[in-house]
Structures are given as structure tokens and as C-alpha cells.
Write a structure and sequence with these properties.
117 residues, alpha+beta, 60s Ribosomal Protein L30, Chain: A, 6-stranded mixed β-sheet, 2 helices, 6 strands, 36% strand
Length: 117
């Protein structure tokens, strides 16, 4: 069994790895944290498109997504609007969205997922 690791972040993690036909995308957070929830969500979805491509897959093959929001009451509807514009309607993954105290005050969203390769 070969595990492929892509885009390491120092000694902490690989942003995406592939094992047994499954791509695992680690929790992604926005780099431009001055943006609102719509902007931060779009940043992450663009980054996820890139990481899935590196792993040899794409968004229509997402199996499960985990989404953490800093303020779910304020941001859930807007995040969903951006998500719904991005995800293929005929390839909706399983998904969980919860509120969480994220790593930095200005991080409004984090997304991790798994996808078939």
C-alpha cells in the first residue's frame, strides 16, 4: 500500500494525501482573512479545487465535507450560497457543518473533506 502525500506544510501535515483510492484534504483556512464569509468560503473552495486536482480528482467526487464556522447563525446562509454555486448539483456530498472556536479570531471558516480518486 502506497500513501501519496502532497503539499506538505513544514513538519506538521500534508494538505492532501491519497490512500486506497481516497483523497484526504486537511482542514483549509483562508489566507486573506480580511474578507467576509463569502470571500473566505470562495478562497477555500478555490484552494480545494487545486488540492483535489493535485490528488488526481475533482469536486464531483467529494464523498464527505466537514465545515466549521466561527458564527453559524450569522454565516451559515451566506456560506451555503457560495457552496451551492460551487458544488455540482448532481454530485452533492455528505456534509456536516458546525460552529467552532477556530484557531484565530479572523478565521471565519475551515473546510476538510474526503473524495474518491
Amino acid at each position: 500500500m502506497t500513501i501519496q502525500r502532497f503539499e506538505p506544510n513544514g513538519k506538521r501535515l500534508s494538505h492532501v494525501l491519497v490512500n486506497n483510492g481516497i483523497a484526504y484534504v486537511t482542514g483549509q483556512v483562508p489566507t486573506d482573512r480580511t474578507q467576509d464569509i463569502a470571500g473566505q468560503t470562495q478562497q477555500l473552495l478555490d484552494r480545494i479545487d487545486h488540492l483535489l486536482s493535485v490528488a488526481g480528482t475533482e469536486k464531483s467526487k467529494i464523498l464527505f465535507a466537514q465545515i466549521w464556522l466561527k458564527d453559524i447563525k450569522r454565516d451559515f446562509a451566506i456560506m451555503n450560497r457560495v457552496w451551492e454555486e460551487w458544488v455540482p448539483e448532481d454530485a452533492l456530498p455528505a456534509r456536516a457543518t458546525v460552529e467552532a472556536n477556530l484557531a484565530a479570531e479572523e478565521i471565519l471558516i475551515e473546510i476538510a473533506l474526503t473524495a474518491a480518486v
